[in-house]
Amino acid sequence: MKTATRYQRMYSVLAVFVLAQGLIGLALCGPVEALEGLERIVLSEDALITDYVLVGGPGPALINSALVTLLSLFLLWANRVPCNGTTLVTTGLMMGFSLFGKNLINIWPILAGTWLYARWKREPLGLHISAGLMSTALAPIISYIFLDNGWGHPLLAVLIGLGIGFVMPPLSAYTYKVQNGMNLYNMGFACGVTAMILVPLLSSLGAEPETRYHWAEDCTLLFAPGLAILCVGLIVWGIFFAGKPWWASWAGYRVLLRTTGRAPSDYVRMFDLPPVLINMGVNGLIGMSFVLLGGGTLNGPTVGGVLTIMGFSAFGKHARNILPVMAGVFLGSLVMHWSLSDPAVQLACLFCTALAPVSGYFGWPFGVLAGFLHSSVVLYTGSPVAGMNLYNNGFSGGLVAMVLYPIIIAVVHDRKPELQNDDYLALTQEDTPTAPQVAGRFREQRDD
């Protein structure tokens, strides 16, 4: 219970960080420009790719992200959800995608639908609120119907949002099974399946949704220093100031790098916070470096991608299993008719890390293959759904995982069994006998 209490304090730390982000955004634009920018953000249709940094300005984009993330943290805290790896994933997703697609208006109908599902099942909302927040990947559908005066209607947008929020918790639980833990963005796959049904249905009724292209080009110098400071700060915090001796924190991180990342891999429960903070900082630097070295730019979508990688660093991603997948995307750029500097490919470079478990479980050559395939598949999966699924890389990653997994299993017969939590503890103690249970099982339970 003491461990659970310590994790609950992370809500306060996250809230302080998000408030700081909002204040930085306000300092960049001032109150009047912030309100005008937020109005433009709310009134945009939000289909991929709609960079709020271009639509509303850098300051309003950061403020929108801060407000949406604070709302998400409040819902998680109010429903007594333990602060674990899934919580950090949800926070990273909401913070990142609120820079290019989610806003304070278009997420509410879906969240209300999740509340209705919890009431229907007579279960606490806390069991489903994380799924509801992630389901807001389909928020562009709400914006499109709400704002399209030639076809849609606000009431219809609300009703469809309620339906999305109602069906996504059970649907995502099913799609999780069919991907065998090889795609970390399970909700993206579930949202993609839903969008594949909804968008053709809406088109048959007369709607004409289209993909968007709003992409800021000149914000790298604005975002790069702050993102670098955040990543380095997390590493320093994890090593020296997270409540463990530095050698214990580093030993835990070394053992974390030996995991496969196959879902579910809640690194907070398995290794405690210090190794996870180090992992978040290292992975954030890797993601940012990959974008910049590939000739890309840091803006709303790419910063959102880096934040997503950092969030999933608490739930399956680490340097050893994401680098081969990224290398596969780089390899694709050498032989295919697209460049690493293309906006869609920049996003693929970041979000392809959804397939990190393929690399961790089967080995780096298969990770390279997964990234190579994903880099092309993702360029075409967004068109059938007209950009209405913000987690498009999760959808394409799920398709690649479902094809690769049975084929590789049929070829690779000498797979070693995965390490269990007790094995991680033994490895950590072998590395440094003074490390007090850097890895192990935590049995805290949510108090209903």
Question: Key terms for this structure?
Answer:
2 domains, 22 helices, mainly alpha
Set down the secondary structure blueprint.
Layout (H helix, E strand, L loop, with lengths): L1 H7 L1 H20 L1 H12 L9 H4 L2 H21 L6 H13 L10 H14 L7 H6 L4 H9 L6 H25 L7 H19 L15 H21 L5 H11 L10 H5 L1 H21 L6 H13 L6 H17 L7 H9 L4 H7 L1 H18 L10 H20 L9 H11 L17
Helix pairs in contact: 2-5, 3-5, 5-6, 6-16, 7-10, 9-10, 10-11, 11-21, 12-15, 13-15, 13-22, 15-16, 16-18, 17-18, 17-19, 17-20, 18-20, 19-20, 20-21
Explained architecture:
The protein is mostly helical and 448 residues long. Helix content is 68%, strand content 0%. It is built from 22 helices and no strands. It starts with a helix and ends in a 17-residue tail after the last helix. The model is unreliable at 419-448 (pLDDT under 50).
Poorly predicted ranges (pLDDT <50, ≥5 residues)? 419-448
Fraction in beta strands: under 5%
What is the count of structural domains? 2
Structural class designation: mainly alpha
Based on Cα principal axes, name the global outline. Answer: globular
Order of H and E elements: HHHHHHHHHHHHHHHHHHHHHH
**Helical segment count:** 22
Query: Averaging pLDDT over every residue, what do you get?
Result: 88
Task: Give the tally of β-strands.
Answer: 0
Termini, distance in Å? 14 Å
Instruction: Return Rg in Å.
Output: 21 Å
Helix proportion: 55-70%
How would a crystallographer describe the biggest sheet? none
